[in-house]
Please model this.
Amino acid sequence: MSQVSLRPMKPSDVPAVANIESDVFESPWSIGVLKEELGAPRRTYVVAEDKSGDLVGYAGVMIVEDDAHVTTIAVVPQMRGRGIATRLMVSLINAVLAAGARHLTLEVRESNAQAQRLYERFGMTTVGRRKNYYLNEDAVVMWATDIDSADYRERLDSIAETTEATV
Ligand SMILES: CC(C)(COP(=O)(O)OP(=O)(O)OC[C@H]1O[C@@H](n2cnc3c(N)ncnc32)[C@H](O)[C@@H]1OP(=O)(O)O)[C@@H](O)C(=O)NCCC(=O)NCCS
Model:
């Protein structure tokens, strides 16, 4: 049995999520922004919690027409490398597919090789760059198209099977 479980983010999770945000990101989202996001339409936010109920990660996505845009994903440093972000991504993608999205996109720092490897496992490829998207760094723009295809469903199920089995 997994020690970490996933569930939808609740408003009462926001302070804990904001703490992780400010530990992990240079320009963290405030409690206000997180609350607004959580209450906005066409959003899915999920958290990962350990057996004692502490939040160890979270991720979110926004859907605009056919496109699902991953807005944030983070795992606390001491719990990384155990497949938690992978499980968060599987959960987000299943949710956006159920909501009718057909493509997946996001921006990531060009220096963030770890995150880029995660996204590549989900079939995302670099299609462009946004100059100085972060204060002093370019963003790489990644896309996975046709995530509603049978091929992509196979990829997702295979990632989910191997990850659930090891975490
Ligand atoms: C990017 C980030 C979310 C990844 O989280 P994570 O939970 O460590 O990710 P995973 O565990 O799913 O995958 C990480 C690695 O662990 C490996 N792994 C997964 N499950 C594993 C397991 N059970 N045992 C051993 N290794 C495992 C994966 O294969 C992957 O290896 P790779 O990097 O060589 O490809 C995390 O590093 C983070 O929070 N970074 C700071 C915030 C950030 O940069 N967010 C992205 C913004 S765009």
In short: The chain has one domain: 5-166. The beta strands are 5-8, 43-49, 55-64, 67-75, 103-109, 125-134, 137-144. The first strand starts at residue 5 and ends at 8.
